[in-house]
UniProtKB/TrEMBL annotation:
Source taxon at top rank: Bacteria
Matching NCBIfam families: MIP (TIGR00861), PRK05420.1 (NF003838)
The protein's name: MIP family channel protein
Subcellular location per the Swiss-Prot or TrEMBL entry: Membrane
Bilayer topology term: Multi-pass membrane protein
Transmembrane intervals: 47-69, 99-118, 143-166, 173-194, 220-240
Statement: the UniProt record of this protein carries the keyword Transcription: no
Keywords: Cell inner membrane, Cell membrane, Membrane, Repeat, Transmembrane, Transmembrane helix, Transport
Amino acid sequence: MSSPTTVQKLAAEALGTFWLVLGGCGTAVFAAKSIAQDDDTGTSFQVGVGFLGVSIAFGLTVLTGVYALGHISGGHFNPAVTVGAALAKRFDWKDVPGYVVVQVIGGLIAGAVILVIAKGKDGFEAEGNMAANGFGDHSPSGYTLLAALITEVVLTAIFVVVILGATDTRAPAGIAGIAIGLTLTLIHLISIPITNTSVNPARSTAVAFFNGNGAPGQLWLFWLAPIIGAVIAGVLYPLVFGKGADEPELDQIPNPPVST
């Protein structure tokens, strides 16, 4: 079987990031706070999926994306993962810019699709309602810049460590997608109240400019913090845990098994 071409890999990364944003942010916009009304009493009550549902949605998009597209592109769907994998010598640095660009493009297309669909409901206002990340006044629970920075750095580092560990040749085969998806679910359960959870610059960029309300001005943090976390993980993982004895360098692997 022939190896995927560069175009196919880039297309897979764009599609996977599109799916991640559509599934995760789309759930947050459309389903997190859905309100229903009792026809008999006229009483309104919430039927939305809440933080738990949004967390599960992000985990499921990654899990399904990894199994559907990971064999083509490695299934990063996240600039932080791409950088972390390159630092861990599991991905070629020359391919990093292309991956990052298409990840951002795929995310932005998904953000635009969410916006178009959301405007199909009377009274929808995009400002402040597009699942953007934020801190201070734009944090869901009012957490500070420092709290947001620490949260995003630590959780991204853990996320990338899990990815590198789950795709290590010494790890059980075939379960990487499950481990990665469950980890992203847990990360969202921890940090939605703090930053609305990024750990992924492409996800943050995808909705920030549509959301407005301060999100574009705070976007720098949701690039800086995840990249710092990825650097920590990418450098420390091979130093602390080593490399599988039979694990070749990236340039010897047609389809490097690195996913998110």
